[in-house]
Amino acid sequence: MMSPADNAALPSESEIREALRYVIDPEVGVNIVDLGLVYRVDVSPEMLEIDIAPTSPACPMGEVILDDAREVVDALTPASMAINIKLVWEPPWDPAMMTDAARRVLGWSDE
């Protein structure tokens, strides 16, 4: 059971998403947030749940991305908090999910 002091130390969804910007998809060299791969972040006092999509069903880097994500969020969460990060396949990722920043990095921007 967490104390009120522990609750005060819980990271917000936006803090988790900001930390996940340090996780780079090794195949494309862009962070997973800007790529649009982070589908869900749910923070509760007992658990942090994150759903991450691969860029394709054949993506060989899924486990690497999950390990990197766990490493960055471990630093933000209380030791007593369970962390569940998983790959999800639905809906399939689509390049339209990328931010403008990711499109520019990949040269997909009209600018």
Automatic annotation (TrEMBL):
It comes from the Bacteria. InterPro entries: Fe-S_Maturation_MIP18, FSCA_dom_sf, MIP18-like. Residues 14-78 form the MIP18 family-like domain. This is Metal-sulfur cluster assembly factor.
